[in-house]
Amino acid sequence: MIRVAAGGMSGRRRAGRSLIGAALVASLALTGCTTVDQPEESDGASGGGPGVSDPATDEAIRAIVDGRTIKVGFSPPILSEFYTQVEKAAFNKMKEYEDRYGVKWQWERQGALNDAHSGTETVGIVEGYISRAFDAVFVCSAAPAETMQQLYAKGSAEGVDFYQFNSTEELANPSQAEDPTGGLNTVSNIGYDDRWQSGYISGQYIAEKLEGEGEVLQIMGPSGSDWTKLRQQGFEKAISEYPGIEIVGQADGGYVRDKGFTAAQDLLTKFPDVDAIYGENEDMALGASQAIDAAGLKHWDGNEGIITIGADGLVSGMESIKAGKLTATVDVNSTAIGEQMIETLFAHEVLGMTVNQFVRVPTDVVDKENVDWHLASLKANLAGPGKY
What we know:
The chain is of the alpha/beta class and 388 residues long. It has eleven helices and twelve strands.
């Protein structure tokens, strides 16, 4: 049994222009609050950008835009439901800015087709964006951080600005006391903290529902993944605060539903009396839910059964919560990530503003008690007119 013990700046970055001044305020659609106090760089603040719409302000910004086309690359680690949600929210914000300010967008998506968790394909994709002189590139990659930072530095020197999203820069982020960029060669890093806004609050949720007593299974991402390391760190910290809870089995679910199902099925054969299953992402948790059904076991009904919790905030996951098949998920706010990506890019690329190096969106645990408004809000955000 396993018992958990307690335990470079872009060359094109510029200061903000006084022409726009106080009229430019951040706009972030809050869909929840984390239960963990965030470190200073993770204050949930917006990356900047126009949030107030009035004729004089819009006309002034429209004059700066002057019909410009921004060439943007989008490189997720894999083409999945989560990244589709991020992209659609970005499209809606782009359409808003196109209508308000006359900015035009050239958008290109390239994700890994084979092994998303090695990051090998991402390196070639980003090199292609650099060689074709894109204005800006959004990247989420499992490639080694050092490799990507060197690539960002090279691209920045050639006039391409890089924005990481849903990434793991907190794994080795140095103090910002003397380095305002946190040692990163990106304009901004947009997302949430995997440790405290995902892993930790998942562990908290399980422990509170089980009232501090029980056995837990973990369906983890690929060994060596930075996402796995970070979520594991937060999850184990939460579990360590409850001596009566034990992690009795772990397996690799590859961050995908079918592997999550197989991993959970094998573990449930060995540990059919467990009280909860933690899937590091929602697809693996949904696979675990299917394994519970296949084994003829009972889902959590608020009093008994097996708790299943993941993290992402997918439409399919929230619908499974409504159906009683998934207990909970951590909604990491995919649509807020997409919106903030465009707000931050526009503020920097078009308006010349200095933007936050770390933009943290809020997260929230979603279960039957609050799934209706989360799902309604998510669907409304995804129903916008943006299409590129």
